[in-house]
Specification:
Elements (H helix, E strand, L loop, with lengths): L7 H18 L8 E2 L2 E2 L1 H14 L15 H11 L5 H5 L5 H11 L2 H12 L5 E4 L19 E5 L2 E12 L6 E8 L2 E8 L5 E7 L10 E12 L10 H37 L1 E2 L2 E2 L4 H29 L5 H26 L10 H11 L6 H20 L1
Parallel strand pairs: 3-6
Antiparallel strand pairs: 1-2, 4-5, 5-9, 6-7, 8-9, 10-11
Helix pairs in contact: 1-2, 1-3, 3-7, 5-6, 5-7, 7-8, 7-9, 7-10, 8-9, 9-10, 9-11
Length: 391
Protein backbone atom coordinates (compact mmCIF):
# COMPACT_ATOMS: atom_id res chain seq x y z
CA UNK A 1 0.00 0.00 0.00
CA UNK A 2 2.96 2.34 0.51
CA UNK A 3 5.69 3.58 -1.80
CA UNK A 4 9.06 5.36 -1.43
CA UNK A 5 7.70 8.75 -2.52
CA UNK A 6 5.64 9.11 0.66
CA UNK A 7 7.12 10.66 3.80
CA UNK A 8 8.33 8.30 6.55
CA UNK A 9 5.56 9.48 8.90
CA UNK A 10 2.87 8.83 6.28
CA UNK A 11 4.33 5.44 5.42
CA UNK A 12 4.42 4.34 9.05
CA UNK A 13 0.92 5.67 9.69
CA UNK A 14 -0.51 3.99 6.61
CA UNK A 15 1.00 0.68 7.69
CA UNK A 16 -0.65 0.98 11.12
CA UNK A 17 -3.98 1.88 9.56
CA UNK A 18 -3.74 -1.03 7.13
CA UNK A 19 -3.02 -3.53 9.90
CA UNK A 20 -5.92 -2.21 11.92
CA UNK A 21 -8.38 -2.37 9.02
CA UNK A 22 -7.35 -5.85 7.92
CA UNK A 23 -7.18 -7.34 11.42
CA UNK A 24 -9.93 -5.50 13.33
CA UNK A 25 -12.37 -3.92 10.86
CA UNK A 26 -12.72 -6.60 8.17
CA UNK A 27 -14.45 -9.07 10.57
CA UNK A 28 -17.19 -6.47 11.09
CA UNK A 29 -18.19 -6.66 7.41
CA UNK A 30 -20.62 -9.49 8.22
CA UNK A 31 -22.07 -7.70 11.24
CA UNK A 32 -25.88 -7.61 11.24
CA UNK A 33 -25.72 -3.90 12.09
CA UNK A 34 -24.71 -3.16 8.49
CA UNK A 35 -28.09 -2.30 6.98
CA UNK A 36 -29.66 -1.00 3.80
CA UNK A 37 -29.08 2.61 4.89
CA UNK A 38 -25.55 2.07 6.15
CA UNK A 39 -23.91 0.78 9.32
CA UNK A 40 -25.65 1.67 12.58
CA UNK A 41 -24.23 4.38 14.81
CA UNK A 42 -23.55 1.94 17.62
CA UNK A 43 -21.45 -0.17 15.24
CA UNK A 44 -19.51 2.92 14.18
CA UNK A 45 -18.98 3.92 17.81
CA UNK A 46 -17.76 0.42 18.69
CA UNK A 47 -15.21 0.43 15.88
CA UNK A 48 -14.02 3.92 16.76
CA UNK A 49 -13.28 2.88 20.34
CA UNK A 50 -10.94 0.26 18.91
CA UNK A 51 -9.45 2.73 16.44
CA UNK A 52 -8.75 5.17 19.25
CA UNK A 53 -7.04 2.41 21.26
CA UNK A 54 -4.95 1.51 18.21
CA UNK A 55 -3.95 5.13 17.63
CA UNK A 56 -5.51 5.31 14.16
CA UNK A 57 -8.60 7.46 14.80
CA UNK A 58 -8.70 10.50 12.48
CA UNK A 59 -5.13 9.67 11.42
CA UNK A 60 -4.85 12.46 8.86
CA UNK A 61 -5.18 15.09 11.62
CA UNK A 62 -2.05 15.37 13.77
CA UNK A 63 -1.95 15.94 17.53
CA UNK A 64 -1.30 19.67 17.11
CA UNK A 65 -4.41 19.98 14.92
CA UNK A 66 -2.50 20.30 11.66
CA UNK A 67 -3.41 18.26 8.60
CA UNK A 68 -1.20 15.81 6.74
CA UNK A 69 -0.27 16.99 3.27
CA UNK A 70 -2.65 15.82 0.57
CA UNK A 71 0.04 13.45 -0.74
CA UNK A 72 0.48 11.97 2.74
CA UNK A 73 -3.28 11.79 3.20
CA UNK A 74 -3.53 9.76 0.00
CA UNK A 75 -1.59 6.76 1.28
CA UNK A 76 -3.30 6.86 4.69
CA UNK A 77 -6.84 7.09 3.27
CA UNK A 78 -6.16 4.33 0.74
CA UNK A 79 -5.19 2.10 3.66
CA UNK A 80 -8.34 3.04 5.58
CA UNK A 81 -10.41 2.14 2.51
CA UNK A 82 -9.34 -1.50 2.38
CA UNK A 83 -12.74 -2.26 3.94
CA UNK A 84 -15.95 -0.33 3.23
CA UNK A 85 -16.12 0.06 7.02
CA UNK A 86 -12.52 1.22 7.39
CA UNK A 87 -13.09 4.93 6.77
CA UNK A 88 -15.93 4.90 9.30
CA UNK A 89 -13.82 3.17 11.93
CA UNK A 90 -10.85 5.49 11.33
CA UNK A 91 -12.98 8.64 10.93
CA UNK A 92 -11.80 9.36 7.40
CA UNK A 93 -15.20 8.96 5.72
CA UNK A 94 -17.26 11.47 3.78
CA UNK A 95 -18.93 13.80 4.55
CA UNK A 96 -17.06 14.20 7.86
CA UNK A 97 -13.59 14.25 6.32
CA UNK A 98 -14.53 17.07 3.92
CA UNK A 99 -16.39 19.00 6.60
CA UNK A 100 -13.40 18.72 8.94
CA UNK A 101 -11.17 20.12 6.21
CA UNK A 102 -13.53 23.03 5.49
CA UNK A 103 -14.00 23.97 9.15
CA UNK A 104 -10.26 23.84 9.67
CA UNK A 105 -9.78 26.32 6.83
CA UNK A 106 -12.71 28.71 7.33
CA UNK A 107 -14.08 28.31 10.87
CA UNK A 108 -13.52 30.85 13.64
CA UNK A 109 -11.83 29.67 16.88
CA UNK A 110 -15.24 29.56 18.55
CA UNK A 111 -16.76 27.57 15.69
CA UNK A 112 -13.86 25.13 15.71
CA UNK A 113 -14.21 24.53 19.44
CA UNK A 114 -17.95 23.91 19.18
CA UNK A 115 -18.34 22.13 15.84
CA UNK A 116 -14.92 20.90 14.68
CA UNK A 117 -13.54 19.32 17.85
CA UNK A 118 -16.34 16.72 18.19
CA UNK A 119 -15.78 15.68 14.57
CA UNK A 120 -12.01 15.34 14.87
CA UNK A 121 -12.38 13.35 18.08
CA UNK A 122 -14.83 10.98 16.39
CA UNK A 123 -17.55 11.68 18.95
CA UNK A 124 -19.93 13.15 16.37
CA UNK A 125 -20.94 12.79 12.74
CA UNK A 126 -21.85 15.60 10.36
CA UNK A 127 -23.90 16.27 7.24
CA UNK A 128 -23.45 18.73 4.38
CA UNK A 129 -26.79 20.16 3.19
CA UNK A 130 -26.28 21.34 -0.39
CA UNK A 131 -28.11 19.19 -2.97
CA UNK A 132 -31.81 19.94 -3.57
CA UNK A 133 -34.61 17.98 -5.29
CA UNK A 134 -34.04 17.98 -9.05
CA UNK A 135 -37.75 17.49 -9.65
CA UNK A 136 -38.32 20.90 -8.06
CA UNK A 137 -35.60 22.62 -10.04
CA UNK A 138 -33.19 22.74 -7.11
CA UNK A 139 -29.41 22.84 -7.02
CA UNK A 140 -27.37 19.75 -7.86
CA UNK A 141 -24.35 19.82 -10.11
CA UNK A 142 -25.25 23.47 -10.80
CA UNK A 143 -25.14 25.14 -7.36
CA UNK A 144 -26.32 28.44 -8.84
CA UNK A 145 -29.81 26.91 -8.90
CA UNK A 146 -29.92 27.02 -5.09
CA UNK A 147 -33.47 27.59 -3.85
CA UNK A 148 -32.95 27.34 -0.09
CA UNK A 149 -32.99 30.87 1.33
CA UNK A 150 -31.41 32.60 4.29
CA UNK A 151 -32.92 35.87 5.55
CA UNK A 152 -31.33 38.03 8.25
CA UNK A 153 -33.72 38.75 11.12
CA UNK A 154 -32.03 40.70 13.91
CA UNK A 155 -29.06 38.64 15.08
CA UNK A 156 -30.38 35.42 13.53
CA UNK A 157 -30.66 34.01 10.02
CA UNK A 158 -33.96 32.36 9.10
CA UNK A 159 -33.52 29.48 6.67
CA UNK A 160 -36.17 27.80 4.56
CA UNK A 161 -35.85 25.21 1.84
CA UNK A 162 -35.73 21.57 0.88
CA UNK A 163 -32.69 19.32 0.48
CA UNK A 164 -32.23 15.84 -0.98
CA UNK A 165 -29.58 13.10 -0.94
CA UNK A 166 -28.11 14.51 2.28
CA UNK A 167 -25.65 11.86 3.38
CA UNK A 168 -25.65 11.00 7.06
CA UNK A 169 -28.29 13.53 8.12
CA UNK A 170 -30.01 10.88 10.23
CA UNK A 171 -27.91 10.57 13.37
CA UNK A 172 -25.63 13.54 12.67
CA UNK A 173 -24.83 16.08 15.39
CA UNK A 174 -23.28 18.79 13.18
CA UNK A 175 -24.72 20.26 10.00
CA UNK A 176 -23.40 22.66 7.36
CA UNK A 177 -26.31 24.14 5.41
CA UNK A 178 -25.96 26.00 2.12
CA UNK A 179 -28.53 28.68 1.38
CA UNK A 180 -28.69 31.90 -0.61
CA UNK A 181 -28.96 35.39 0.86
CA UNK A 182 -29.27 38.70 -0.97
CA UNK A 183 -25.46 38.60 -1.19
CA UNK A 184 -25.29 35.13 -2.73
CA UNK A 185 -24.53 31.66 -1.40
CA UNK A 186 -23.89 31.21 2.32
CA UNK A 187 -23.00 28.39 4.71
CA UNK A 188 -24.39 27.97 8.21
CA UNK A 189 -23.28 25.74 11.08
CA UNK A 190 -26.09 24.09 13.03
CA UNK A 191 -26.53 21.65 15.88
CA UNK A 192 -28.45 18.50 15.01
CA UNK A 193 -31.08 17.29 15.47
CA UNK A 194 -33.26 20.40 15.26
CA UNK A 195 -37.08 20.40 15.05
CA UNK A 196 -36.90 22.88 12.15
CA UNK A 197 -34.84 20.37 10.12
CA UNK A 198 -37.22 17.53 9.28
CA UNK A 199 -36.25 14.25 7.65
CA UNK A 200 -39.15 13.42 5.31
CA UNK A 201 -37.66 10.15 4.08
CA UNK A 202 -34.45 8.18 3.71
CA UNK A 203 -33.99 7.16 0.09
CA UNK A 204 -33.22 3.61 -1.02
CA UNK A 205 -30.03 3.89 -3.06
CA UNK A 206 -27.53 1.60 -4.75
CA UNK A 207 -24.89 2.24 -2.07
CA UNK A 208 -25.05 1.51 1.66
CA UNK A 209 -21.65 2.29 3.16
CA UNK A 210 -22.49 5.54 4.96
CA UNK A 211 -24.38 5.75 8.30
CA UNK A 212 -27.79 7.38 8.04
CA UNK A 213 -28.04 6.81 4.31
CA UNK A 214 -29.16 9.67 2.06
CA UNK A 215 -32.13 11.70 3.30
CA UNK A 216 -34.63 14.19 1.96
CA UNK A 217 -34.98 17.18 4.27
CA UNK A 218 -37.46 20.01 4.81
CA UNK A 219 -36.05 23.11 6.52
CA UNK A 220 -38.85 25.27 7.94
CA UNK A 221 -38.08 28.60 9.64
CA UNK A 222 -34.77 27.43 11.02
CA UNK A 223 -33.24 30.19 13.16
CA UNK A 224 -29.44 30.24 13.20
CA UNK A 225 -27.44 32.76 15.29
CA UNK A 226 -25.45 35.14 13.09
CA UNK A 227 -22.16 33.97 14.59
CA UNK A 228 -22.85 30.48 13.21
CA UNK A 229 -22.49 31.67 9.61
CA UNK A 230 -19.37 30.05 8.20
CA UNK A 231 -17.22 32.83 6.78
CA UNK A 232 -18.96 35.73 5.05
CA UNK A 233 -22.37 36.14 3.44
CA UNK A 234 -22.18 35.57 -0.31
CA UNK A 235 -18.93 33.56 -0.19
CA UNK A 236 -20.53 30.13 -0.02
CA UNK A 237 -19.49 29.01 -3.49
CA UNK A 238 -15.86 29.91 -2.72
CA UNK A 239 -15.99 27.82 0.44
CA UNK A 240 -17.63 24.98 -1.48
CA UNK A 241 -14.61 24.88 -3.81
CA UNK A 242 -12.24 24.88 -0.83
CA UNK A 243 -14.08 21.79 0.38
CA UNK A 244 -14.76 20.04 -2.92
CA UNK A 245 -11.29 19.91 -4.50
CA UNK A 246 -9.69 17.89 -1.68
CA UNK A 247 -12.97 16.02 -1.03
CA UNK A 248 -12.98 14.70 -4.60
CA UNK A 249 -9.47 13.40 -4.10
CA UNK A 250 -10.37 11.88 -0.73
CA UNK A 251 -13.09 9.88 -2.46
CA UNK A 252 -10.49 8.70 -4.97
CA UNK A 253 -8.17 7.67 -2.13
CA UNK A 254 -10.74 5.75 -0.09
CA UNK A 255 -12.39 3.95 -2.99
CA UNK A 256 -9.03 2.93 -4.44
CA UNK A 257 -8.49 1.04 -1.19
CA UNK A 258 -11.86 -0.69 -1.44
CA UNK A 259 -11.28 -1.76 -5.03
CA UNK A 260 -7.71 -2.86 -4.26
CA UNK A 261 -9.21 -5.25 -1.74
CA UNK A 262 -11.84 -6.45 -4.24
CA UNK A 263 -8.99 -7.15 -6.66
CA UNK A 264 -7.15 -9.15 -3.99
CA UNK A 265 -10.26 -11.25 -3.44
CA UNK A 266 -10.67 -11.82 -7.19
CA UNK A 267 -6.99 -12.80 -7.54
CA UNK A 268 -7.32 -15.30 -4.70
CA UNK A 269 -10.45 -16.75 -6.28
CA UNK A 270 -8.86 -17.00 -9.73
CA UNK A 271 -5.89 -18.90 -8.32
CA UNK A 272 -7.96 -21.32 -6.23
CA UNK A 273 -10.84 -21.96 -8.64
CA UNK A 274 -10.23 -24.50 -11.41
CA UNK A 275 -12.18 -24.97 -14.65
CA UNK A 276 -11.42 -26.87 -17.84
CA UNK A 277 -8.40 -28.51 -16.29
CA UNK A 278 -6.53 -25.52 -14.86
CA UNK A 279 -6.76 -22.54 -12.53
CA UNK A 280 -8.90 -19.67 -13.79
CA UNK A 281 -5.93 -17.30 -13.78
CA UNK A 282 -4.21 -19.54 -16.32
CA UNK A 283 -7.02 -18.87 -18.79
CA UNK A 284 -5.99 -15.90 -20.89
CA UNK A 285 -9.35 -14.14 -20.63
CA UNK A 286 -9.22 -14.13 -16.84
CA UNK A 287 -5.52 -13.43 -16.52
CA UNK A 288 -5.77 -10.45 -18.85
CA UNK A 289 -8.63 -8.96 -16.81
CA UNK A 290 -6.54 -9.15 -13.65
CA UNK A 291 -3.57 -7.63 -15.48
CA UNK A 292 -5.78 -4.76 -16.61
CA UNK A 293 -6.87 -4.32 -12.99
CA UNK A 294 -3.27 -3.84 -11.89
CA UNK A 295 -2.76 -1.20 -14.60
CA UNK A 296 -5.93 0.70 -13.71
CA UNK A 297 -5.18 0.61 -9.97
CA UNK A 298 -1.69 1.99 -10.49
CA UNK A 299 -2.99 4.71 -12.80
CA UNK A 300 -5.63 5.63 -10.20
CA UNK A 301 -2.94 5.91 -7.53
CA UNK A 302 -0.65 8.02 -9.71
CA UNK A 303 -3.45 10.32 -10.86
CA UNK A 304 -4.59 10.93 -7.29
CA UNK A 305 -1.05 11.61 -6.10
CA UNK A 306 -0.45 14.05 -8.95
CA UNK A 307 -3.58 16.03 -8.12
CA UNK A 308 -2.67 15.92 -4.42
CA UNK A 309 0.72 17.43 -5.23
CA UNK A 310 -1.03 20.29 -7.03
CA UNK A 311 -3.13 21.04 -3.95
CA UNK A 312 -0.04 20.82 -1.74
CA UNK A 313 1.61 23.45 -3.95
CA UNK A 314 -1.01 25.97 -2.81
CA UNK A 315 -3.24 25.81 -5.88
CA UNK A 316 -6.99 25.40 -5.48
CA UNK A 317 -6.57 22.49 -7.91
CA UNK A 318 -10.09 22.62 -9.32
CA UNK A 319 -9.15 21.38 -12.80
CA UNK A 320 -6.71 18.81 -11.48
CA UNK A 321 -9.19 17.38 -8.98
CA UNK A 322 -11.81 17.21 -11.74
CA UNK A 323 -9.42 15.28 -13.97
CA UNK A 324 -8.55 12.91 -11.13
CA UNK A 325 -12.20 12.40 -10.22
CA UNK A 326 -13.07 11.43 -13.80
CA UNK A 327 -10.05 9.22 -14.43
CA UNK A 328 -10.04 7.46 -11.07
CA UNK A 329 -13.79 6.83 -10.75
CA UNK A 330 -13.94 5.39 -14.27
CA UNK A 331 -10.81 3.26 -13.73
CA UNK A 332 -12.06 1.89 -10.42
CA UNK A 333 -15.42 1.05 -11.95
CA UNK A 334 -13.65 -0.99 -14.62
CA UNK A 335 -11.68 -2.83 -11.95
CA UNK A 336 -14.74 -3.54 -9.80
CA UNK A 337 -16.64 -4.77 -12.86
CA UNK A 338 -13.81 -7.13 -13.83
CA UNK A 339 -13.67 -8.50 -10.26
CA UNK A 340 -17.35 -9.41 -10.47
CA UNK A 341 -16.79 -11.02 -13.88
CA UNK A 342 -13.78 -13.04 -12.74
CA UNK A 343 -15.74 -14.44 -9.80
CA UNK A 344 -18.89 -15.18 -11.77
CA UNK A 345 -21.92 -15.95 -9.61
CA UNK A 346 -19.79 -15.50 -6.48
CA UNK A 347 -19.06 -11.97 -7.61
CA UNK A 348 -22.69 -10.93 -7.40
CA UNK A 349 -23.28 -12.59 -4.04
CA UNK A 350 -22.69 -10.92 -0.70
CA UNK A 351 -20.29 -13.59 0.50
CA UNK A 352 -17.47 -11.08 -0.16
CA UNK A 353 -17.25 -7.29 -0.49
CA UNK A 354 -16.78 -7.53 -4.28
CA UNK A 355 -20.50 -7.06 -4.89
CA UNK A 356 -20.62 -4.04 -2.56
CA UNK A 357 -17.48 -2.55 -4.10
CA UNK A 358 -19.15 -2.65 -7.51
CA UNK A 359 -22.26 -0.88 -6.20
CA UNK A 360 -20.34 1.72 -4.23
CA UNK A 361 -18.03 2.60 -7.11
CA UNK A 362 -20.99 3.05 -9.43
CA UNK A 363 -22.35 5.65 -7.01
CA UNK A 364 -18.88 7.23 -6.67
CA UNK A 365 -19.02 8.21 -10.34
CA UNK A 366 -21.80 10.64 -9.33
CA UNK A 367 -20.48 11.92 -5.97
CA UNK A 368 -19.22 15.53 -5.99
CA UNK A 369 -20.30 16.00 -9.58
CA UNK A 370 -20.83 13.31 -12.24
CA UNK A 371 -18.15 12.57 -14.81
CA UNK A 372 -19.91 14.55 -17.53
CA UNK A 373 -20.02 17.76 -15.46
CA UNK A 374 -16.30 17.56 -14.80
CA UNK A 375 -15.59 16.97 -18.50
CA UNK A 376 -17.77 19.94 -19.39
CA UNK A 377 -15.90 22.09 -16.88
CA UNK A 378 -12.57 20.99 -18.34
CA UNK A 379 -13.78 21.68 -21.88
CA UNK A 380 -14.70 25.24 -20.85
CA UNK A 381 -11.22 25.68 -19.38
CA UNK A 382 -9.67 24.42 -22.61
CA UNK A 383 -11.66 27.05 -24.51
CA UNK A 384 -10.62 29.81 -22.07
CA UNK A 385 -6.99 28.81 -22.32
CA UNK A 386 -7.20 28.81 -26.12
CA UNK A 387 -8.73 32.30 -26.16
CA UNK A 388 -6.06 33.58 -23.79
CA UNK A 389 -3.35 32.15 -26.05
CA UNK A 390 -4.84 34.00 -29.04
CA UNK A 391 -4.92 37.36 -27.27
Amino acid sequence: MTAPQYSPRATALAERVERFVRDVVVPYERDERCGAHGPSDDLVAEMRVKAREAGVLTPHILEDGSHLTQRETATVLRASGLSPLGPLACNTMAPDEGNIFLLGKVGTPQQKARFLEPLVSGRARSAFFMTEPAEEGGAGSDPSMMQTTGRLDGNHWVINGRKKFITGAVGAQVGIIMAKSDDGACMFLVDLPDPAIRVTRVLDTIDNSMPGGHAQIDIVDLRVPADQMLGQSGEGFTYAQIRLSPARLSHCMRWTGVVQRAHEIAVDYANRRHAFGKALIEHEGVGFMLAENVIDLKQAELMTDWAADVLDSGSLGTAESSMAKVAVSDALFRVADRCVQVMGANGVSRDTIVEQAFREIRAFRIYDGPTEVHKWSLAKKIKRDWKAAQA
